[in-house]
Write a structure and sequence with these properties.
With about 210 residues, the chain is mainly β. The N terminus is likely disordered. It is about 0% helix and about 50% strand.
Length: about 210
C-alpha cells in the first residue's frame, strides 16, 4: 500500500513503510513527479527529530550522487522535465536493530523556490509482518503533541491492541481496547514515540506521538 503527497509543483508516492530484517539495511525507493508544464531543478532536504542510536546511520542518494550520513541537503540538484517522474531517490537506514521503527523526513524542493516543496515522513522498520490496513477511520488519538493525558477514540466493537514504542523500538505501553479511553502519560519522559493499532491480524500504519511535559 502506498499514499500520495503533492505540493504545488511536485508529488511523491512512497510506500507506507519499508521493512528489513534486523541487522540489514532498510531501503526506501520511490518516484518524484514534476506536476508542472516547465522543467524543474529539484533538491532533497533530510531531517530527523532525534539522532539515530549509536551504530545506526542513514544516507540517501539523489540521482547518481550518494551523500554521507552527516549530509542533510543534496548539493547536486536534479532536473525533472515537465510532467515527468524521476525514480532516482533512495533512502537507507543501516544496521536495523530488532523490533525497531525509525521515521525520517524528506522534503523535495524546487531549487530556486524552497517554499515550493513536498515533504513526507518515511517509516523504516524491522518489525516483521507489519501489515497496513485502512483502519484510520476507526480511531482518533489526540492531542498530539500531548502533555499528560492522551485521548483515544475507538469506534468499533472489535477489540484492538494499542501499542506505544520509544525511539529504539521498545514497546513501552500495550493494552487491548474495546472502547474509547484516556491514558495518563505523566510517567513517560518527554520525547518522540510511535503508536499503532493491531486489529484481527492487521496493523495500522505507525504514527508519531510527541510527549511534552
Amino acid at each position: 500500500m502506498s499514499f500520495g503527497l503533492a505540493a504545488q509543483s511536485l508529488s511523491v508516492q512512497p510506500d507506507s513503510y519499508y521493512y528489513s530484517a534486523p541487522g540489514e539495511t532498510s531501503t526506501a525507493h520511490f518516484n518524484v513527479t514534476n506536476e508542472t508544464t516547465k522543467d524543474l531543478s529539484v533538491i532533497v532536504i533530510r531531517s530527523m527529530d532525534l539522532p539515530l542510536p549509536d551504530g545506526i546511520y542513514s544516507t540517501f542518494c539523489w540521482g547518481i550522487t550518494c551523500y554521507a550520513p552527516e549530509t542533510d541537503v543534496s548539493v547536486n540538484p536534479i532536473l525533472i522535465p515537465a510532467g515527468e517522474s524521476f525514480d532516482g531517490f533512495t533512502g537507507y537506514v543501516y544496521n536495523m536493530p530488532e523490533e525497531s521503527v525509525f521515521v525520517i523526513n524528506y522534503c523535495f524542493a524546487v531549487e530556486n523556490d524552497l517554499s515550493d516543496k513536498v515533504c513526507m515522513d518515511v517509516t523504516y522498520t524491522s518489525v516483521e509482518n507489519l501489515v497496513v490496513d485502512e483502519l484510520s477511520a476507526d480511531y482518533d488519538v489526540y492531542p498530539n503533541p500531548v502533555k499528560d493525558v492522551l485521548h483515544i477514540d475507538y469506534n468499533t466493537s472489535v477489540p484492538a491492541e494499542f501499542s506505544i514504542y520509544d525511539m529504539l523500538g521498545n514497546r513501552v505501553y500495550d493494552d487491548v481496547l474495546t472502547s474509547s479511553m484516556t491514558l495518563n502519560l505523566s510517567s513517560f519522559e518527554s520525547g518522540i514515540y510511535f503508536y499503532t493499532f493491531h486489529v484481527q491480524g492487521k496493523e495500522a500504519a505507525v504514527q508519531k506521538l510527541v510527549i511534552t511535559h
